Amino acid sequence: MSESPAMAALSRESPRILIVGNAGQLGRELEKIFAGCGSIVGVDRESVDLADAAQTRELVRRAAPDIILNAAAYTAVDRAETERDLAYAINEQAPGILVEEARRCNALFVHYSTDYIFDGGKTSPWVESDTPNPLNVYGASKLAGERAVESIGGKFLIFRTSWVYGPHGNNFLLTMLRLARERDRLSIVDDQIGGPTTSIELARATHSIVTGILAGRFGAPQDWTGLYHMTCGGSVSWFGFARAIFARAAELLALKPPALTPIATKDYPTPAARPRYSVLSNAKLHARFNVALSPWESALEETLQSLRNAG
To answer: Which residue among the candidates 74, 88, 138, 228 is catalytic per the annotation?
Structure first.
């Protein structure tokens, strides 16, 4: 059987890779790990306004990529409650245009979604076939993005992830380290359970899967196209995560840990509601691609080590 034009494009020795959101915490790690895989075109919010449909479309046509990695998103969960149109423009409209353009030029499209598309009503890990029911505008806009990608189709991968953090950007880890230098005591929510996932592990897993697809290890596009959960292993509350951060940061970063007090969600009201339990099952990801991200504890250790090494 002859190779399809689509797979021929993906099998090039040096594919052209467009990374959207390359200045963000995930985009930076993707750019780093894919550096040796082909020709990288990276864009951030300074170079393209993803809320502008024409700019987004022109971006892809100018780049003419074989692979699009969409690491861009509107992630201000609370602010989305009052910036609904902007959240939907970036989280629904932009991915729809990107995947449409990817399909037009036979490119592979990789997109990231969130655990916040679920309402938290389960007590066991969520699977891909569970019914979404977002509690906030951010989650609803990300779900709309998933559906836009699925409705247009082509060769795509959607990776739902959770509680993303890393050595760069705005995230829980870096916020905790900053607050520890400013305060002696912190109150942290202890009744929301999830799976902290590092940008480093997400980039590694994405790289493993995409390079496997390029090498033909996972079959034809119809064998792997679709939606998968992708998180670090295990689960913890925000309070438990903070406690683990400070326990290791005290040694690795010579940081004096603040006194921590566990509190309930009701004692820390926010504009956007959060799911109480949003742990995702990675069984489908492992079964299809034989990929498993590190446990959250070891991923945290690696991230803190990288912060120490960065000085």
So the answer is: 138
